[in-house]
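Worked example 3. Consider a protein that binds magnesium ion.
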Amino acid sequence: MDAIYLPTVVPLPIPEEELVDLVKKGKDWAIMHGASMRSKTKFSEDNINFAPFVLLPSTMTQRNYRRALELQTIFQELVHKVAYDHEFLEHCLSNTVKVDDFTGRLWSIYEMVHKEGVAQPIALGLLRCDYMLETCDKERKNKRRNSNTYPTCEWKLVEVNTIAAGFGWLGPASRLIQKYIMEEMNLHDKIPRLPENNALAGLCQGMLDAWKLYGNPKGCILIVIEDVSYNICDQRFHQFQLREMNPNVKVLRKTLTQIGNEAVLNPKKELTINGDVVSVVYFRSGYEPVQYHGQNEWDARLLIERSKAIKCPNINYHLAGCKKVQQELAKEGVIENYITDEEQAKLIRDAYVGIYGLDLDEEGDRAVELALKQPEKYVLKPQREGGGNNIYGTEIKSALLEMKDSQERTAWILMERIFPPISKGYMVRPDQPVPPAIMEMVSEFGIFGVIIGDSERIMNNEQVGHMLRTKVATANEGGVAAGLGALDSPYLI
Ligand code: ADP
Ligand code: MG
Ligand code: MG
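Given these inputs, the predicted complex is written out as structure tokens:
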């Protein structure tokens, strides 16, 4: 397939001497302003290093940018309604929970709490929809396209994250690094093309709105954290922002293990930790099996779920974000059940690529056949979050052949692979030679939003900001902490 290239902000290459200077300044700016992470390879609690970043922003059309923002509240309404549709969740997950132990355990918490009676009807969603651009077919065929024009592209949904959607700080921070670099390059007149990004404030406002709804002036916000937070700056900036926006709200950070050891429910079903009542629980952990060491952590999750605290997400929302649910939503006519406005339904419908279930039925068999024939056109996904779990290319073949006729295959979904246009630029990473070489890269755009509501109504539904993650074009996945992705931000043209 012919690659389609995006125009760059300035002509490349940047002269070597200037480039070396910019890279050094950019690294220092990032470290000194908290666009940083804990290193996985040289780990120490006291050490942070800059997060990998792309030196200059990636071009995006105004139209594509506005469209991504516009989709957010529609997807949020969809997720909210699905999260409160018991029958649909059961329909989606009934086979998967039999073979996927992790999803099964989440499901049993969901069932337990619903049998017992939900103590807190209100849910807080801090969601992030992730997209990649797909080049329209006619553009691919037009080989004589002028390389300075932007190809016609449309957003395709990669996934909706309903739990622990990070980069509320690193998203805005990416813009700030690149703004600084552009100012150092005397590109002042181009700065207005970097759209404002207030994701951090928007997400924290969402938490504070939920805190207020809970109605306890002494209540605190509990952030559920991993044993080791590599993405520490992103998390801490949420905490600092909350402190700034409302100095009276106490913020706790606890692992599931600590919550298991320290938290109790009082007779009013309030979640209390060492005497503090928790109004809002914000999960930045709990989405991966390894984060539950044993019964203690599962008990902690159940305890939180049974409590009156407003959860971000509650177990409904967590389940609604499962890849399996997203696959069922992609089926013809399903989103239209939830989004009654035809125009809105069409907008999000157009953002779907084909996603197929792998149940042991005719439809599943057809999907297996498709993937075996052209594995390079698909991504095979399990019910997992956090990156690094998917299977690509020829490995899809061996994975599918192995589980061809077994129930295990129902724990996976098959998704058409998106092939985004390619941008060229410099990626700055720790421990890499300076100056960096020009790289070919592709981006994934994440839009943040806040939604608050219960089974009856949606009280607040808004889009609050964005993040752009860019990876080398040849990499399957581009997790920033994982090492192949880098912070980036859009430059509107
Ligand atoms: P996770 O919840 O683990 O982040 P994703 O569905 O986002 O799972 O997949 C992880 C990464 O895999 C994405 O960030 C993207 O880089 C890549 N990816 C996922 N789906 C597709 C797809 N359909 N086409 C191309 N790349 C994809
Ligand atoms: Mg995810
Ligand atoms: Mg993802």
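Take a moment to read the result before moving on. Residues 130, 132, 158-159, 379, 381, 384-387, 389-390, 415, 417-418, 444, 477-478 surround adenosine-5'-diphosphate (ligand 1) (CB under 6 Å). The two ends are 26 Å apart (CA to CA).
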